[in-house]
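User: My collaborator and I are trying to settle a disagreement about how two of our proteins should look. Neither of us wants to argue from intuition anymore, so we agreed to look at predicted structures for both before our next call. Could you fold the first one, then the second, and keep them clearly separated?

Assistant: That sounds like a sensible way to settle it. I'll keep them separate. The first protein:
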Amino acid sequence: MTDDRLPLAELMAKTGDGDFLRTIAENVLQIIMEADVDGLVGAGRHERSGDRTTWRNGYRDRSLDTRLGTLNLKIPKLRTGAYFPGFLEPRKTVEKALVAVIQEAWIAGVSTRRVDELVQAMGMTGISKSSVSKLCKDIDERVHAFLKRPLAGDWPYLWLDATYLKVREGGRIVSVAAIIAVAVNTEGKREIVGLHIGPSEAEPFWSSFLKDLVRRGLTGVKLVISDAHEGLKAAITRVMGATWQRCRVHFMRNALAYVPKGQNTVVAAAIRQVFLQPDHAAATQVWRQVADQLRARWPKLGACMDDAEHDVLAYMTFPEQHRVKLHSTNPLERLNKEVKRRADVVGIFPNEDSIIRLVGAVLLEQNDEYQLQHRYMQIEGMAALATPMIEEAQPLQITPKAA
């Protein structure tokens, strides 16, 4: 067996008083890990033994936060099998999912050079299929329970956004959409309510996803906010019976595509005047004025604004306290960035199950954070949710009589 212990005097000579205890702790934990690995290998470092079952294969760094400060440890790696010290906490669910996805790609022989290098850096060379299966089973059970959980109560607002990922399918690499659904209930609380994988443009895809949400208990939806995906609007009307809000940010990008780049700033400023109006009636009036002004120079832009008017301004008929979060899918941006950050490490997923495993784990942890936060929307606006639409409709009927 190896003996990595240093005499107390030597340790004191190498470190200052402030770092002495931390260095002692690091060395003690390192000795424990070395002893554990000696037992797994069946021999000490550089020791010849007929009882040897495998060989050491370097180290991987891991930090441990303690009262003494952050300890920098080096976890021994094995050429076959794996070792993880019992005194360290296992990785978070997302990290486990990421490891599982990479391991699947490695075992299936479909990993890219980038994934290959990452696997070796993480010390997972030669891990067994049984270990992968056990790890995946634990993650899948938690993720599926989260994604299929029943939904209680009414959910007035629903956001849908797509993140595109690459996956191997039938020997080809194809792009699929991972649709994430986030909803707010009548208590003003935000939750992640669904994940679906498929082609985002197909109406059957959207209908299937929305029907699944309804079966799980997503009721009382009054407004669905998303980008302009083909087939989505019809699916929302048929399945949800709700109003559709076209993402204002995505609309602006589409509209400015009809304008020379040198004119983008001026045109964008003109259109934004619409969104500064206090109510739906005023916003509609300014929208038509701006559309007519721009139509003279850019007919296609005018036609685009005509087609999008009702969908882009739908949020203006809802409570004023909520409008700042209803006009676009921006509330999902931070979540999508975290999903992409994790997915970019994998690059190409071996199958759709691995996408659900990794993305679902990210959503599970983010949803836990949502539950610890304050209300996402003011509850006063929820109480008056239907009132603004009635009040704004009345002036159109009363004004002619008063005149």
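The second protein, kept apart from the first:
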Amino acid sequence: MVNLLTILQILFSIIVISLSTYSIITSDYQLSFLVLFFLGLLILVLGIKEFQRERKVSGWFHIAVFLFSVFVSIQIFFN
């Protein structure tokens, strides 16, 4: 059975790759805040999976990167 976190990981990966590819092909970087936001969500899912594997240090590192990524994404959106 496929885990919900695995489905979210695949979904967020596809979104990040699609938006990044679109930005590179069209040279339109106005959606970079969305790329960072979904990349942050992907890293959050990876952090939760690390906590489930009893890797607490790596999990906390992923959570910190997620928070930084979402903060930067919000800053880009409002500027």
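Some points you might bring to the call about the second protein. The two ends are 43 Å apart (CA to CA). The chain has a mean pLDDT of 93.
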